Structures are given as C-alpha cells and as structure tokens.
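Tokens for RNA polymerase sigma-70 region 2 domain-containing protein. Go.
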Amino acid sequence: MINAYIIDNFSYDISMKKFDKAKDNKIQELVKIVKSSDKNNDDAFCELFNYFKPLIRSLQLIYKIDDFDYDDWIQEGAIVCYKACISYNGSRGSRFASYYRLLLKNHIISLIRKQETAKRKINKKKPLLP
C-alpha cells in the first residue's frame, strides 16, 4: 500500500519511493543555485520550496502542534528547507528530497518536544491545594 496524499492536484508519496528522476534532477540543480552565493537565488528557492509544500501538508496532517496554522507550517518548512540547502552534501549519493524530509520531520518533533516541556512547566507551577 502506498501512503500518498493528493494535495493541490499533486500526488506526493510520503515514503519518497515515487519521486521521479526528472524532478530529482531539477531539485538537485535548484539546490546548487540556492547554495551558490553569487547568484540571485530567491526565484530558485521559491521554485524548490514549491516542490515540497505537499510534504509539509502531509506532515501537518500527521503531527499536531498547538496554535500552528498552515502559514506557520509553511514558514517552518521554508526555514528548514533553506538550512537543508546550505548543509546538503549530495556527494554520497543521497537525494535532497530525502534529506529535507528527515530534517523537517526532526524539526517538527523538536517543536512538539518544546511544546510538551512548556506544558509540564506550567503544570509544575500550579500551587497545590491545602
């Protein structure tokens, strides 16, 4: 069974097994453009990030973060995408899409951990009834 969500007429396989080679090559090119400091990379980053908006939506359906709407998810996804572009090293044969998905998922889990820690701190500060 393939775990896929259909979002905005774009099918995105969560397991990344269906990510085709043409898109992967295009993504690799865009990552190189974003990584280079001598070019105007805003358009390349926007084009690259648009490939991954369905991934962000699918993760939003899986993970729940209090007070996070779709725009917050997009903002966090963009921040992680840019950091992934800068730190990505494809020399070992890894794909950027897999790398970005891993970083984004770890970032979301960290946000959930922080949220749960904040809840515990609030609960500890409540005075006990006499």
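The chain has one domain: 4-125.
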